[in-house]
Amino acid sequence: MVVEFNSYTINESIITFYCTKVEDAFSRDREYPEEVQFAFDTTNKYQTRTLMNWLVKQKSVKALKGENPTWGEVLTAVLGTVVNVSWNRYRVYY
């Protein structure tokens, strides 16, 4: 699924990304884009590993290399990017 990262929240140990689905940009419903959320529990080592591996591969995060970035700087770096993710197991349905 191709998404654009709009914002994120960190509540206790949960990192939630708020995204807009952009793969349907040319569909009839483009005036009402679908909003999706992905949540990662950082107390779970498998979810943390998935998130960290993905973050390390992002160009905007690689640009921070050598600066010892904080979590906030790394998560802010991916905002506004459009990428293809396959995080169906981390999707939050509301």
Structure description:
With 94 residues, the chain is an alpha+beta fold. Helix content is 26%, strand content 32%. A hairpin with a 2-residue loop joins strand 1 (2-11) and strand 2 (14-21). The model has no long low-confidence stretch (mean pLDDT 88).
SSE order, as H and E?
A: EEEHHHEE
Structural class: alpha+beta
Sheet-strand content, in percent, reads: 25-35%
Tally of alpha and pi helices: 3
The termini sit apart by 18 Å
Gross morphology is: globular
Unreliable runs, pLDDT <50, ≥5 residues? none
Q: How is the biggest beta sheet arranged?
A: 5 strands, antiparallel
Number of strands: 5
| Cα gyration radius (Å) | 14 Å
| Average pLDDT reading | 88
Helical content class: 25-40%
The largest sheet has its strands arranged as 4-1-2-3-5
Structural topology:
Elements: E1 2-11, E2 14-21, E3 35-41, H1 45-57, H2 59-62, H3 71-77, E4 82-84, E5 91-92
Antiparallel strand pairs: 1-2, 1-4, 2-3, 3-5
Gist?
By secondary structure, this protein is an alpha+beta fold. 26% of the residues lie in helices and 32% in strands. Strands 4-1-2-3-5 form a five-stranded antiparallel beta sheet.
Could you list some keywords that capture this structure?
single chain, alpha+beta, 3 helices
